[in-house]
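Contributing new records

If you add data, match the layout below exactly. Sequence lines come first and carry their own label; structure lines follow with theirs. Keep one chain per record. Anything else will be rejected by the validation script.
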Amino acid sequence: MFFGVTHVDVPVCDLARSEAFWGKLIGLQKVKHGEGFIDLDSGSVILRLIHVNQIARPVTLRVSVPDVKVAFDKLIGAGGRALYEVQRTPALELEAHVADPDGNSVVVWRELNEDEYGFVPELPKQGEWHADSEELFNELLKYVPALFRSMARRKVTRIIEEVAGYDHAPVARQHVIRGYILASAKIKRDRLIEPLKMCGIDPENYKEEFDA
């Protein structure tokens, strides 16, 4: 019955001014225009700038950016009005709020990476772990780039618990080390040598896992 959201209507009092703000500044491409409107392609939905004499119901649009502070300053420099400066949210996002020349809100934002959390996320454990085993695994995870760490945490935790399951025992340090190695593709295991050494572990003691 429904084909999905295609447009978001943005009321504006000056089409040319708003096209410059949303099109030239933010980088949305004009794909269509007609009497009293301009369509701009956001990459997912079309922003339809609709000319009105008075803004009765301003809208809020969230725009993903690589650097929130740079985007915020750029919008302010182009005539936007600061609503909220750069702030961290409970949803582990960084965002800032700016009003466009017509009072519509623009939220520029990005997700925090794990290095910016300020805490260590919980392991998705299903079984019992010794405290020093969890500590070791969290230390090894620091060597995984933040962008991929969440995925690695889920995958490697599962494999570590599978390894411990063969021994019918709680997860011990040996299970963490073996699972950490086995979770990586064989062709890429050489890159695990340095993190293991940095954690006081001799990779030579785990040749069987490296060769598996």
